């Protein structure tokens, strides 16, 4: 079992749910049909469609199990509903600068939603943990694989609340 909650944004949960639905409702049934057809062709030991199909079916079933477990443990948090927008919490988009005044814009998202190239870092990543609770002007030190670095929080932003 997980030792910490699986925080996730509504969009991230929706993406997991869509993937689960596509695998279970579309890809898996088609694959079962191909395997059934291939099994009816005789010798299974040299039947590529059958062998590949069974292998792919195991991969899909593993992924479905993983997705089900992650969705069950998910705690959906809407960043737009964050009451304390003056500090860095889940879903915040933060502009930080390092000791060399190199600025980066990061969004703290669920661990299942990370995309470093797009500036989306997981909630349990070292930099994310260091930034939690920081306000504009705070300097936070984080130990990264490349060594220790200090970052200053320049700006904190949250999505606009819908319905306002």
UniProtKB/TrEMBL annotation:
This is Transcription elongation factor GreB. GO terms for molecular function: translation elongation factor activity. Residues 6-76 form the Transcription elongation factor GreA/GreB N-terminal domain. It comes from Sphingomonas oligophenolica. It comes from the Bacteria. Gene3D superfamilies: Transcription elongation factor, GreA/GreB, C-terminal domain, Transcription elongation factor, GreA/GreB, N-terminal domain. Keywords: DNA-binding, Elongation factor, Protein biosynthesis, Transcription, Transcription regulation. Belongs to the GreA/GreB family. GreB subfamily. Residues 86-158 form the Transcription elongation factor GreA/GreB C-terminal domain. Necessary for efficient RNA polymerase transcription elongation past template-encoded arresting sites. The arresting sites in DNA have the property of trapping a certain fraction of elongating RNA polymerases that pass through, resulting in locked ternary complexes. Cleavage of the nascent transcript by cleavage factors such as GreA or GreB allows the resumption of elongation from the new 3'terminus. GreB releases sequences of up to 9 nucleotides in length.
């Amino acid at each position: 079992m997980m030792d910490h909650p699986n925080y996730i944004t509504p969009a991230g949960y929706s993406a997991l749910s869509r993937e689960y639905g596509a695998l279970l409702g579309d890809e898996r049934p088609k694959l079962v049909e191909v395997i059934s057809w291939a099994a009816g062709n005789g010798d299974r030991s040299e039947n590529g469609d059958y062998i590949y199909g069974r292998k792919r079916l195991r991969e899909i079933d593993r992924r479905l199990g993983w997705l089900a477990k992650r969705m069950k443990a998910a705690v959906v948090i809407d960043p737009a509903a964050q009451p304390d927008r003056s500090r860095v919490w889940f879903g915040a988009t933060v502009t930080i600068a390092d000791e060399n005044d190199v600025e980066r814009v990061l969004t703290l998202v669920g661990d299942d939603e990370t995309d470093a190239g797009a500036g989306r870092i997981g909630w349990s990543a070292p930099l994310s943990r260091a930034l939690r609770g920081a306000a504009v002007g705070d300097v936070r030190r984080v130990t990264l694989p490349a060594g220790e670095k200090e970052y200053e929080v320049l700006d904190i932003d949250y999505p606009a609340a819908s319905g306002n």
